[in-house]
Design brief:
By secondary structure, the protein is mainly α. The chain is 53% helix and 2% strand.
Length: 188
């Protein structure tokens, strides 16, 4: 019997793999949380499938998403990244990744981990929504607006409320699998 999935991933194998293995799964590991933060900020204004297709190139270009290394990128490294045809070559987003790595480190220092910080917004428990169609899934919520505002206060960039909501979905802070999807009622 075939698995019943959310409609958005049905026509692409890469989307299905991402849907089945990652999207909506609670993630508490700081490096993975930073990876998704970086990828979601690059996704702003683009299709997520574009980012998924370039994910391994991003991984190589951005030192395995090691925020400690990224925080120290120089102008030479920025120039190198701007020449890399395998990633999104947007100076503002590249500079934001470096800036965000530094802000990420400050948050880690203050809270012990970025995970401790970000999960406090949902009291450590994923929000489980019960949407039955894609049209019901919001692009942003009051919570994503609040988190975006807090992240911006802490210096992060390219992290508006829509990007934050996508980040929340990607890292499992919110589970927006549709009610008919096999992932909807999965225990977290």
């Amino acid at each position: 019997m075939a698995k019943v999935r959310c409609d958005w991933c049905k026509n692409n194998d890469l989307y299905q793999k991402y849907h089945d293995e990652e999207w909506g799964e609670p993630d508490y590991e700081d490096r993975k949380l930073f990876e998704m933060l970086l990828l979601e900020s690059f996704q702003a204004g683009l299709n997520w499938l574009t980012i998924l297709k370039k994910r391994e190139s991003f991984r190589t270009a951005f030192d395995e998403f090691d925020y400690r290394v990224i925080s120290k990128y120089s102008e030479d490294k920025i120039s190198e990244l701007l020449q890399d045809e395998n990633i999104i070559r947007h100076r503002g987003k590249i500079e934001a990744a470096i800036n965000n790595a530094n802000a990420f480190l400050k948050i880690q220092k203050e809270f012990g981990s970025f995970s401790n910080y970000i999960w406090k917004f949902v009291d450590g428990t994923p929000v489980l929504n019960s949407f039955s169609s894609l049209e019901q899934v919001p692009a942003q919520t009051q919570l994503s607006q609040n988190i975006s505002k807090e992240l911006k206060k802490r210096g992060l960039k390219f992290i508006g409320p829509t990007t934050v909501y996508a980040y929340m979905q990607a890292t499992g802070l919110v589970n927006d699998h549709l009610t008919y999807c096999f992932k909807h009622k999965k225990s977290v």
